[in-house]
């Protein structure tokens, strides 16, 4: 194992350093781990395999160059903050869930759920679904995991998040080629493709968020005027995160509950504000040490500086960050306002002849429960979720 | 549009002709539709695009040759049968679900669910989960849609069902390559891969059935002696079916509830028998015109003759076929016994030092509900499922 230290430019905001550390894993398959060393302001990279370090260093410097924020710096704002009093974080929350909670690892960034953990997930999801119905008269839906590539294309996903897309591909319809593939794997080999022509172009991907389905389902329609339309759904979402996929805080396949609003600007913004108020009450009932702050999406390198600036400067994205240790927090929910972006791209009208404004609240259920168990332990987390379900 | 007629060999069993008709779609991307013409004992193929017909005919003859059953013919047996009295099939069940039931098409073989249809799915799934707990003390689990390719490899899936696998692939970790992919799609193009080296080898696929997860989760373990271990889970399953993906009876992504048994031979077989008895009671409560018959899996061409013979001759697979019109039925559930196949491949011991025998009951929820609506209409289907949930 070889370790590289790559200096970072001075005065980069801490959230940019964190993002660069995460993106580093996508630079080369030889990278096993990346760490941000605040003391020396450098990126520390563990490599496996021989002699690729010069090439990797060049790629990392290229990445850092592309992600530099320069004169566009905007500091994230903290809007709400809450510390919990009991104070002791469990360093073994993950182990506790595995040993007693019914959580098990089935592979890289993929887990199975049963027992207490499955019960907690269902309870929390049911609670959020009821809130969506009560506060927004949201229509409940059940979408697919497969999402048409066309919908992600409309959302600009392949340009902004190419690193995290999971494509759903199948063998191209060709009798001899399928037979050859079958024959090649008759001795029990791992699947490999011989040539890109063997697979059909990816007309579907795995959905990275629930709300793309809402926009897709409404494509070409015009919504009733003078009101906000609300939908809610639970679904499995997929974001490939390479070597960042560890433990329960970063899964390739995770459970998301989303509430989506469509309508005119002020009403969508008011709905988002109302959701924040209700969810902050949930944060209190779960007695969480947490904060709500402005944030940006994990755009890939080239998109990063300008889109980060745009999102932060316009308060388009708020994240609920919940602490999992005294100095680490994870994003467990986001509250987003997209202006007319999706209304335009999916040709959804707002009743006034103009494209609809949209917004959404998205909850990462495994993450929220994991943070809760880190702060309170499994037994108390079950009681707190139970209590919240009765009182909210 | 050009139409080809390919003669079939005389005296092929009807279920083999049906399978050949389905497999035909995988022979060439130019094939739009295939039909079995019983009167002339031929395969009728619609083609799009110019001048490929000679090549396609050769591929189809190759397919038919590989799927010929010759001296291995075994006729499927009907074990139970039931006709419903009310008698009138709705030809508009699908349209009724779309218009009033909350079903909508989101793409090829993919549907969205809300309203009555989503309610029916949840109700039916809950009913089956409770039956699994009551009859078999089954442990309830929640698995992923992503399944390690290694698990499908162990199950021989890539050799037997290469045509229907959905691979979950992502871009290989390489900064320049990911940047290039992003740049290439900046103008809103559909995603394409330039070269097979651009994507990482598929370490994950989308699960074609729930039970692979059960075997994967138990890999390398030894189960308690002298009893049968039972698990149940609901999950989305994925089988790419090319041009056969139409309506609600054949979805690329569908909902499956499964019950899995592991243990010694006689107890696994007894559990399967018991499941059949309980489910036949459900068939009666839903007042379905249906039959239970021996069946075989949809193996690709080269595997077909011997594996079909093996499954049919050894009563390894029973299918619940439910009528959707006076002369068409669809498989809505299967009851399988795998001998020691999965116990051996996944190294699961049965407590006696030998690999476990396994079996499973699998329910295709959309299909079962669709058949119910075909036979009774949506309103009555809701009442019947409700009634069954109370009485079973």
Question: What would you say about this model in short?
Answer:
The structure is a homodimer of 392-residue chains. The first copy, chain A, folds into two domains: 67 residues, Alpha-Beta Plaits (2-Layer Sandwich), CATH 3.30.70; 273 residues, Bira Bifunctional Protein, Domain 2 (BirA Bifunctional Protein, domain 2). Helix content of chain A is 37%, strand content 26%.
Give the SSE map.
2 copies of one chain form a homodimer.
Chain A: E1 2-7, H1 14-24, E2 31-37, E3 42-47, H2 53-67, E4 78-82, H3 93-101, E5 103-107, E6 110-114, H4 115-136, E7 139-142, E8 146-148, H5 149-154, H6 157-160, E9 167-169, H7 175-184, E10 204-206, H8 211-217, E11 229-238, E12 253-263, H9 265-285, E13 290-294, H10 304-313, E14 317-325, E15 328-337, H11 341-345, E16 357-364, H12 365-376, H13 378-391
Parallel strand pairs in A: 7-11
Antiparallel strand pairs in A: 1-3, 2-3, 4-13, 5-6, 8-10, 9-10, 11-12, 12-16, 13-14, 14-15, 15-16
Would you mind describing this structure in some detail?
The structure is a homodimer of 392-residue chains. Chain A has helices at 14-24, 53-67, 93-101, 115-136, 149-154, 157-160, 175-184, 211-217, 265-285, 304-313, 341-345, 365-376, 378-391, and strands at residues 2-7, 31-37, 42-47, 78-82, 103-107, 110-114, 139-142, 146-148, 167-169, 204-206, 229-238, 253-263, 290-294, 317-325, 328-337, 357-364. Chain A has 2 domains: 2-68, Alpha-Beta Plaits; 78-162 and 204-391, Bira Bifunctional Protein, Domain 2 (BirA Bifunctional Protein, domain 2), CATH 3.30.930. In chain A, helix 1 runs antiparallel to helix 2 and helix 4 (115-136) runs parallel beside helix 13. With 392 residues, the first copy, chain A, is an alpha+beta fold. The model of chain A has no long low-confidence stretch (mean pLDDT 94). In chain A, strand 2 (31-37) and strand 3 form a beta hairpin. At the A-B interface, helix 2, strand 5, strand 6, strand 7 and helix 5 of A face helix 2, strand 5, strand 6, strand 7 and helix 5 of B. Strand 6 (110-114) of chain A pairs antiparallel with strand 7 of chain B, so a sheet runs across the interface. Chains A, B: This is Aminoacyl-transfer RNA synthetases class-II family profile domain-containing protein. Chains A, B: It comes from Acidiferrobacter thiooxydans.
